[in-house]
Amino acid sequence: MTKTSCRRAGLLALLLPVLFITSQSSLPKAEAALSIPAPSTRAGANPFARPGMWIWYVDQSNGGNLRSIIRQARQAKIGALYIKSGDGDGTWSQFNRNLTTRLHRAGLKVCGWQYVYGKRPIAEAKVSAAAKRRGADCFVIDAEAEYEGKYAAADWYIRKLRALVGNRFPLGLSTFPYVHYHPAFPYSVFLGPGAATANVPQVYWHTIGDPVRTSLEITWEQNSIYKRRIYPVGQTYENPGSRELLAFRRFMLNYGTAPSWWSWQETNSSEWTALGKAVNRIPRYRAYSGHVSLDRGDRGDQVVWLQQHLIALGNSMEPTGIFNQATYRAVRRFQANRGLTADGVVGTQTWNRLMKVRPVRVRWSAAHRRSRPVGASASSVTPSAPLSADLPMVRNELAGAKRP
Fold this sequence. Notes:
Elements: H1 4-15, E1 29-31, E2 52-55, H2 66-75, E3 80-87, E4 90-91, H3 97-105, E5 109-116, H4 121-133, E6 138-143, H5 151-165, E7 171-174, H6 187-190, E8 198-199, H7 205-208, H8 212-223, E9 229-230, E10 233-235, H9 242-255, E11 260-262, H10 269-276, H11 301-312, H12 325-337, H13 348-354, E12 361-363
Parallel strand pairs: 2-3, 2-11, 3-5, 5-6, 6-7, 7-8, 8-9, 10-11
Antiparallel strand pairs: 1-12, 3-4
Helix pairs in contact: 4-5, 9-10
């Protein structure tokens, strides 16, 4: 959630209290996907299934008065609080056992969240895991622009975090909602096998400049292929207006999911009223169920994800992130075998069939554990990222977000 100003403030808060080769030997190590049971869809068991509110600074939310926070949450029908528990490789003291215990007694779920940078992924994972020890019901990874292209760092982080919190602990990823704007971001690592169990995209429609409906449909189209339940974060900052907040909530009923909101300290009285007001579904609106279309020449993480599925089906190829001829042929074979039109274009119907396949898990971090032997060629070294990891960001749709 934090941008440059947030990171500086975070530091103050702490002070205060690749070339890719065509030879088979250069393939990253692919593993069978870990089977992690998804949390129950019942709101009582799944903290992400409750309407939530994000807290950056506890002391700037109702003055830090927990009794007042609990009362406000109840009035707005908020069932989960996402409270910042760390930034980078530093823990935040505001997230502690006393806090989580008191909120739990009030019937609230409590989730920690942390902005991560990828410079020290193992240290960041240890900070993330501390939230569970302090009583968190779940944890959300806030990874944004700093993680563009950092597949190995993301892999290191996720593997270490899972080792510390276990395979069943609910993890979410909160990042850019428009995947196609970020071809180098490692969604396939953070949302892949053994990683986050929930997708918590920041759908700040007002900041992005799209209508509520459009922003949600783009988010679903671009994110649904990662096969994680989507729990969007809406915005109360920048005063989007009560009418838009109510529209967002109504669309969420159509999509059958629960929103959360950024952020507590930027929510005014009229917005709190809008969050607690009873709403109904949008009449005659069907939740968008289409998936992003991929074709020859496309590049980016969505192609990496496609290739992980095709490799799992026995195709010999590299997860380059480039929709090349080998990928095209594999797609056509898959389509022909499933009775689909074998045109090599991966549209909604093809994705619906592919998504039933369990993708391989690529160990991008293996490259960081190997040193190149003297005289060895690059083809003998496991790459730490797909070729698409060098692609530039199209747009930072979250840039310019107003922060305290």
